[in-house]
Write a structure and sequence with these properties.
The chain contains 19 helices and five strands. By secondary structure, the chain is mostly helical. Strand 1, helix 1 and strand 2 form a beta-alpha-beta unit. Helix 13 crosses helix 14 and helix 15 packs antiparallel against helix 16. The radius of gyration is 24 Å and the shape is globular. It starts with 6 loop residues before the first strand and ends in a 90-residue tail after the last helix.
Length: 557
């Protein structure tokens, strides 16, 4: 028997969990020692690609830090540990390889969960090139989706359908979700004496410390990590039983249980989509199976779909012209963008959602669809501005879901219908009929009662004065007034009492039709609303993340 013992390095990135972690299990089965490794990659704390927004904002920064700390604790509970460094993964790997080779436990394998987009693939290539030079084997594990990539009923990635409905029907009919993997209670040991690195704080990462948890937030969970993610899953199913009402409540705006809120944990891999699927199936067997329980799975298939679309199209999802290579005219009016990002557009439903995002890192799916439509269709701004701002601000930013959704919203992605446009006023009336959500986040309008909070520009001067509102002073005049809005503004938006209050007049809306994304699906018809759990031009647009586009600024989500 050789004196040397085998060491396997398990690089953890977007799989910050012990349960159902195939990369970790592979390391356990193939090494005498295993070294779980997490790197706070400096690339993740720079500016976004085109517009230089903080790439990791304060809310997600804290959530990541919480998640890594929880992962370390959970690994320690399995006879292991976690090396944590503020360094590029390749640099950390080189140090570990050097140490282990000098202590008679050489690194023979590196294993990690495979990713599909430019920056993540670049890290993987650097690791593979180094390992090849050192005669170290590299194993890539697929583990980020509910359906395993090799279980898809398509010949290859190029055969992935370009519409969600076709994809969903095929996988539901011909694929099965794999069972959750059992992880041993005791993992193979951690090499003796190997330096563990140190856990950084937000300041050392260059991330601003978030303020105290906002009492208004719809995401009131105090910490990230596998432990809190599994707690949320248990409570949403077996505690509140809110899962049984999900389809009826999912378009809500206020409160923690109108939707699952799983997405921040899913984005970092703190919770496995297969674990959610298995618990839903268990709930259906023991409690109730209905449209709501199915709809959670329906949404997980959307998440899978965007992952596989990004794998199919590669860098095209980041191009200005999108996966369709469709060249459209875009503006980069930064004054308008800042008004949108800061919740100062003068359109209350948009402003409330954008302020919620900035203050909490969370926004409802309904809100994401609307603010994306407003930025793209009403303001005509470069969709990448929205995508990069979402990357910066969202707790649950997931690169595939975010860019996939912004491609979709901009009409350059996976959408079988063209020219979709949300009517901001009707959407506000439909989903916040009494203006509760608007008044929660747009404090300037709290004196306006009921649905009129959505259309302050239609109020008389007397009504505004009584509510303590002065348009253009205490609250902005609307940047645009789309003509279709007037049909849902109580008949008060007109040339005398409406459009003159806008900053730049009516947008070029399409008359006679209310524009939305998708209607609710009926049997045999296309599926429901666009998914924007993480959502977020013409010339010179075909540049991926690997090269800068010529327009001013940078990559936007």
């Amino acid at each position: 028997m050789s004196d040397k013992l085998r060491t396997v390095v398990c690089l953890l990135r977007n799989d910050l969990r012990v349960h159902d972690n195939e990369a970790l299990l592979w390391a356990h089965r193939n090494g005498d020692f295993i070294v779980p490794l997490y790197c706070f990659d400096p690339e993740h704390f720079k500016g976004t690609w085109h517009f230089n927004f903080p790439k990791t904002g304060p809310h997600r920064g804290k959530f990541i830090l919480d998640s890594v700390q929880d992962l370390k604790k959970n690994l320690q509970g399995h006879n292991s540990n976690l090396v944590v460094e503020f360094a590029k993964p390749l640099d950390s790997l080189k140090r570990i390889v050097k140490y282990c080779s000098e202590s008679s436990s050489p690194v023979l394998n590196v294993v990690y969960q495979q990713e599909v987009t430019y920056e993540e693939l670049k890290v993987e290539k650097e690791i593979k090139d180094f390992c090849k030079s050192q005669n170290i084997k590299v194993t890539e594990i697929w583990g980020s989706s509910m359906y395993h990539s090799t279980d898809l009923p398509f010949k290859n990635m190029n055969a992935i359908p370009d519409t969600y409905t076709q994809f969903r029907k095929e996988v539901e009919a011909r694929s099965k979700v794999r069972p959750v993997l059992a992880i041993p209670k005791q993992l193979k040991p951690f090499p003796s004496g190997l330096p563990l690195g140190s856990m950084p704080d937000l300041a050392s990462l260059g991330v601003k410390q978030p303020g105290q948890l906002d009492s208004r937030t719809a995401f009131p969970f105090p910490a990230g990590g596998e432990t809190s993610g599994l707690d949320r899953l248990h409570n949403y199913l077996w505690g509140s039983h809110a899962v049984a009402r999900y389809k009826e409540t999912r378009n809500g705006m206020v409160g923690e249980d109108y939707s699952t809120k799983f997405s921040p944990w899913l984005a970092l891999g703190c919770i496995s989509p297969r674990m959610i699927f298995s618990q839903i199936k268990k709930y259906e067997q023991e409690e109730v199976a209905n449209q709501s329980t199915y709809w959670v799975i329906f949404e997980l298939i959307w998440r899978d779909y965007f992952k596989f679309v990004c794998q199919k199209y590669g860098d095209r999802v980041f191009y200005l012209s999108g996966i369709l290579n469709k060249h459209l005219p875009w503006s980069q009016d930064m004054d308008q963008f800042r008004a949108w990002a800061e919740g100062r557009t003068g359109v209350p439903f948009v402003d409330a959602n954008m302020r919620e995002l900035k203050e909490t890192g969370w926004m409802s799916n309904r809100g994401r669809q609307n603010v994306a439509s407003f930025l793209i269709k009403d303001l005509g701004l470069d969709w990448r501005l929205g995508a990069e701002w979402f990357e910066s601000q969202l707790l649950d930013h997931d690169v595939c879901s975010n860019y996939g959704n912004w491609n979709y919203a901009a009409g350059i992605g996976n959408d079988p219908r063209e020219n979709r446009k949300f009517n901001m006023i009707k959407q506000g009336m439909d989903y916040d009929g009494e203006g509760e959500f608007v008044r929660l986040w747009v404090e300037e309008l709290r004196g306006i009662k009921g649905s009129k909070a959505h259309v302050p520009w239609t109020l008389t001067d007397g009504e505004l004065e009584k509510a303590g509102v002065e348009l253009g002073t205490t609250y902005p005049k609307p940047l645009v007034l789309a003509p279709e809005w007037s049909r849902h503004a109580g008949g008060k938006q007109n040339s005398q009492n409406g459009s003159h209050r806008g900053q730049s007049g009516p947008s070029k809306g399409q008359k006679g039709i209310n524009f939305y994304f998708k209607t609710e699906p009926k049997t045999g018809q296309s599926d429901g609303n666009q998914r924007s759990n993480n959502s977020s031009s013409a010339g010179g647009g075909n540049r991926g993340r690997g090269s800068k586009a010529p327009l001013r600024g940078g990559r936007v989500q």
